[in-house]
Amino acid sequence: MRMNNNCFDTFPKRQYVLDFVLEVRKYLFPGYFDSMTCSKESYKAKELKLIEKKYTKYVCGSSASYFVKELPNLEKQIYEDLDFFFESDPASESKEEIVITYPGFYAILFYRVAHIIYGLGVAYVPRLITEIAHSSTGIDIHPGCKIASPFFIDHGTGIVIGETSEIGKYVKMYHGVTLGALTLKEGRELVGKKRHPTIKDNVTIYSGASILGGETVIEENSVIGSNVFIVNSVVKDTKVIYSQDLINKFIK
Question: What CA–CA distance (Å, rounded) separates 155 from 151?
């Protein structure tokens, strides 16, 4: 899809896109958001048929069938996220509570749906999906970033994850974290370039930390403390508790 002068008429409306993601959520979690009057398998089959016939062609364009084929992988990832949420948060009383009420889980699910569509080259829709989640949760995840599963967001308000960020498995992230660009002074010349950091496996990033730059890598098993400002890479198994200029001995 490409933007044109009649984009208001060409592209799906916000409510339609929201309805699409919520139907995908119902498919992934049968019985969580409405009652099931049939078996789980029949319920999922009914939802899948609705998603295929009513939504995917309009939302995904000519690549609608690809989205449907990706649903099993999406389901695997989101259930890995769910298990990690439950293991990571002692305040959660059940996985059902996480699915229904946790803003971090909501934002991740919307991101994972948007990321599939982003990979199809569809304009506008992936960003609209993540912005719907952003407006509801305060969590801003660009659909183009790469986030492995499982991934855990606690609280979440104020998190920003930029387009070229890469996040590995078993990463934990708290509210107010920014994975951002070091500079945008070159503007459009930065399109397609790696501007945002890479976070490797088993990293924990506490609230308010800012990690900036496309060459910045936080290696495995590191812990980034609250309100730390980082613009250079951090070696594995490191605990960073002060801003970057105070801890040069920990930096590559």
Answer: 13
Residue type, 232: N
Helix/strand/coil (H/E/C) assignment for every residue in 23-38: HHHHHHCCCCCCCCCC
Q: Say whether the peptide bond before residue 103 is cis (omega within 30 degrees of 0).
A: no
Partner residues linked to 229 by β-bridges:
210
- 74-98: per-residue pLDDT in tens? 999 999 999 999 999 999 999 999 9
Structural tokens at position 151: 């991934």
CA 41, CA 193: separation in Å to the nearest integer? 44
Alpha carbon 43 to its chain's center: 26
- For residue 57, which phi and psi values (nearest 5 degrees)? -65, -40
Could you tell me the pTM of the whole model?
Answer: 0.91
Backbone angles phi, psi at 224, to 5 degrees: -110, 120
Q: Which two tokens stand for residue 107?
A: 């934002």
What pLDDT does 37 receive? 83
Amino acid (one-letter) located at 151: F
Distances (CA, A) of 15 to 19, 22, 49, 214: 6, 10, 20, 35
Tell me the pLDDT tens digit for each residue of 190-242.
777 899 999 999 999 999 999 999 999 999 999 999 999 999 999 999 999 87
Q: Which of 177, 155, 156, 160 is nearest to 223 (CA)?
A: 177
